[in-house]
Amino acid sequence: MLDTSDSYVTEDGRTIGGVVMEMKNITLRFGGVVAIKDISFDIREGEIRAIIGPNGAGKSSMLNVISGFYNPQEGDVYYKGALRPPMKPYQVAQQGIARTFQNIALFEGMTVLDNIMTGRLNHMKAGLFAQAIWKGKAEAEEVANREVVEKIIDFLEIQSIRKTPVGRLPYGLKKRVELARALAAEPSILLLDEPMAGMNVEEKEDMSRFILDVNDEFGTTIALIEHDMGVVMDLSDRVVVMDYGKKIGDGTPDEVRSNQAVIDAYLGVSHD
Amino acid sequence: MFYREAGDFKTTYKDDNQTFPIKFDRYRYYAVMFAAFAVIPFLINDYWVNAIFLPFLIYAIAAIGLNILVGYCGQVSLGTGGFMAVGAYACYKLMTGFPEINLFFHIIISGGITAFVCVLFGLPSLRIKGFYLAVATLAAQFFLVWLFNRVPWFYNYSASGQINSPERSLFDITITGPNADAWAKYLFCLVFLTVLALIARNLTRGTIGRTWMAIRDMDIAAEIIGVNPLKAKISAFAVSGFFVGVSGALFFSVYLGAVEVGEVFGINKSFLVLFMIIIGGLGSIFGSFAGAAFLVLLPVLLKNVLVGGLGWPTDLAAHLEFLIIGALIVIFLIAEPHGLAQLWRVAKEKLRLWPFPH
Amino acid sequence: MSDTFIFGMEVFLNGLMAGVLYALVALGFVLIYKASGIFNYAQGVMALFAAMTLVGIMEGRVPFSHLINAIFGTHIHHFGWHLPAVFGILFTVAVMAGFAWCVQKFIFRHLVGQEPIILFMATIGLAYFLEGFGDLMWGSDIKKLDVGLPQGINLLIDETTFGWFGYGFFIDNLDLVATVIAALLVISLIIFAQYTKQGRAMRAVADDHQAALSVGISLNFIWVMVWTLAGFVALVAGIMWGTKSGVQFSLSLIALKALPVLMLGGFTSIPGAIVGGLIIGVGEKMFEFLVGPLVGGATENWFAYVLALLFLVFRPQGLFGEKIIERV
């Protein structure tokens, strides 16, 4: 059960609920390399949580731990109040955690529509035989889910490309389609891995608007990694700062901005 | 001029999902079905059925099956010949073991048995990928052919080591054996092809088809967004195996009537079906038909022109056939990896705009 | 000492020698794969084609004579000369170099950057093409190949082992020579790759195409070179097998024997190819000797594959490969 006793309301009027996911003392190693060292933090329901840090700080590894792609050697992950046992990535996805990728991971051979429909896999239940027959259950299910997907297509303003093969799209649109695919899952937590990498200012503004709208309209909890400090500080409610696999700061954007360790990590400090 | 989608609006998602969204395509499809079921059976004789129609229908089933595995799910298999042999021998054992049961069910069950065997050999696909897997499926090819060659139980201890299709009928019409009529054999196979092609179409346009394609395009990302790789790959192997098994059963029972496994279901059969889907188009049901038609017709054509027309020796025509098929494979892979199906699609695009391309 | 043990030892030795030949064929694959990422299914047909060409040149056959006769109604077949083996081999190497150039120019230059599996299927197409082409050029009859290699039972080994065990081992001289030549070839290839300028360039290309380009290595040259080398290796394998059982279609199937060797040893490792070849050579002969009679024989057809398959399920990276870490 979610503990909502310490929920609060933000300045702009959104309600931030209790802790939905908690990472406790996570340590992840690849052979001798320690990618994440003893990190703990939590994600609250309805908030936008950012993970920042210089290159190689272990941010993507952290996201991969949350989405179940890597299983940490030490530490526990609590999801919705319960300890999450080590599980396969697809099981994590079935629990309601969806994500996008740093280097776009769309299915290039499929159309935009089919890509977004794959996001709804875990909402579709028709078996092999029902699908082979098609008429009846499979068709009804397809149409019902298509309606949901069309809403998301409207929301992200990509109506005109819905039947275009993804391989033909420009970079910025691909990023948007990937967001649509993740949204289609109607996730409890949405993980965004550098949603604005390689974008120009206008595209970044568009993407920021979509992220805020998603959080606002659907109340989706969002955890994101981003390099652009300005964007992060504007978007997020709370920020985790990582450096060399360790956590060096955690708090609201203002708190983090004034944290000496964070300033040192970003601006450099003389070791004398 | 006729080929238009303008004005052909869809108002429901159901309409938008149909197999032939463009009206002209839909009518042409009805026309083809009518011709195939109601016209051709009255026109054909033994030569046409045995040289062209039966091999086309049966290879088309195998090609659709392999296309599901290779074209849709991205798992390359070189064991098609071996799996067809499973279908053939399963059918033989069922036909001789349970003669009172309808041939129709024998063939369905043969497909099911092949699906099971195919899954068994598909299990390594969870650990190994790409051409490691392709080479691993050769294990199935060699092992299965050896098995049917060396274990006498499979060919009922017959002295020749061959299996022969006994005479069986359906609704009092003889389908197998030397006394079967050409049109009956044709219709029997046509029914299987039609139903299986529809099933393949339904599977590939829905959820399961999307999970296959997701695995094909990017397996790691697919798993992270919630595709269970075990389920996706195993179901592809099972469905593919079923199709290939049915085609093997028909190949033996209806088409050839007698089979010596090493000759009929050797590794060249695996390559032939693979070539069909490369030339026809990976990831396209229509392409499976086109590829099967192409590679069934090509040798017939070469033989008629070179041997019949120009009086060349047969072996020369056969060598030329190898050379041409090999060259075609390479040319298609370089110029049009999506095969005849893509050429057809491009032609339709052009036709849609014609006569005002700008 | 029991009879089974002594027979087993003889089988073991024969397996070892077969294994060296498998390793040789596998080496042809490794060369091309390392330099270009192409898994060359046509390697076996290349061996067949090389051996056919050698016979054709030595016997002075007219290329495409059947085709010419069929089209023009002529009756040509031989030029009427007989060349010594050395010249034949030299000419054949030249033909294989020309073949390498054509393959690069007309096929793989157009497929740069394609997925490995597409390249693999292209080589299957190439194999079909080359098979048809070879048959058209030289005819599909079974040809006798004799380049002067010794054949028949090795009496020295026969007598020595008879002295030891009271049973003389049957070891064919041809197998012995083949083993020695294969071993020499393997060693010289390793030396070539390690110590010559071209060898270094080849390894550089194998490591990173872009980086190799940027230091001024011509990719095209390297690729033609490795295909030529692979053609040479194919010729050697073709001579061994052709001398033993005639130049015919079945010769091209030795490629199929090399595939499991590669799966076992890893596609990029020369030592892997050698060890894999030996394991498969010995393994399949011993399995046929010990288990074959119980299950109907001819297990050599599939044993290597099933072994490699089972092995891969437990160790997907092969014997000498590094552990694969997946990333997103």
UniProtKB/TrEMBL annotation, chain B:
UniProt KW keywords: Cell membrane, Membrane, Transmembrane, Transmembrane helix
Classification lineage: Bacteria, Pseudomonadati, Pseudomonadota, Alphaproteobacteria, Rhodobacterales
Protein name: Branched-chain amino acid ABC transporter permease
Location in or out of the cell: Cell membrane
The species this protein was found in: Cognatishimia coralii
TM stretches of this protein: 27-44, 50-69, 76-95, 101-123, 130-148, 183-200, 236-259, 271-296, 316-335
CDD domains on file: TM_PBP1_LivM_like
Membrane topology label: Multi-pass membrane protein
Keyword Ion transport carried by entry: no
Source organism superkingdom: Bacteria
Major location category of this protein: membrane
Record InterPro entries: ABC_transp_permease, LivM-like
